[in-house]
Amino acid sequence: MQPDVELDWSYLADLAGRVARQIAEKWCVVETDDVKQEILLHALQERRHIEAAYGDESLLRKIFWTAGVRYAAKERAHYDLMDDVYFYTPDEARAALRSFLYTDTELGEMLGKRDDLLRCKVSDNLVSARIDATAGLKKLTPRYRDLAMRVYVYGLPPKDDAERKAANRAVDALTQAMNRHIRTKKIEEPRD
């Protein structure tokens, strides 16, 4: 059995903060401090796993990432259930962009089936995301719109690292626009 490892909690808090910041950028439904707190709570509750992984920053990062994403997903599910408000992530925006390869009829025929090209199971959620992505693309700058279409719809590789980063920023901007579109649509709907 491995002897007890003395954990440096300030180091773990710093690492948790960096991971939390990345998660909060992708999941607009959570705040960095809340994610960090949940990661550290997980580290305290699962101390034996943290001790076993201590010294391997990439493994600690994976453990923290999993705990943080689990919390963010739980928060998003809460908002969806309680407020009937859904928040898209950049990965879901990418999947919506990839769905533009298909016509509405083709996509409708694929409902319930797994598609290797889209890397997901085609569901009515993807159809809704596609509608929101179409509206969101109109809100992007022409450069971001062109980059998103070129890289994620047509599948052309970015020319260089700067263009790859710009394409990722375009997806982040699209995600924000999709989320704003949902909320705007919700506010405009008449209440009974």
Q: What kind of sheet is the major sheet?
A: 2 strands, antiparallel
Spatial order of the strands in the main sheet? 1-2
Low-confidence residue ranges: 116-120
End-to-end distance: 64 Å
Helix content class: over 70%
The number of distinct β-strands equals: 2
Percentage beta strand: under 5%
Mean pLDDT: 83
List keywords for this structure.
two-stranded antiparallel ribbon, elongated, 192 residues, mainly alpha
Structure in words:
- It is a single chain.
- The protein has 192 residues and is mostly helical.
- Helix content is 71%, strand content 2%.
- It contains 9 helices and 2 strands; from the N terminus they run ααααααββααα.
- It has a two-stranded antiparallel ribbon.
- A hairpin with a 4-residue loop joins strand 1 and strand 2.
- Helix 7 packs across helix 9 and helix 8 crosses helix 9.
- The radius of gyration is 20 Å and the shape is elongated.
- About 3% of the residues have low confidence.
Layout of strands and helices, then pairs:
Blueprint: H1 9-26, H2 32-45, H3 47-53, H4 57-83, H5 90-98, H6 104-110, E1 114-115, E2 120-121, H7 124-137, H8 142-153, H9 161-188
Antiparallel strand pairs: 1-2
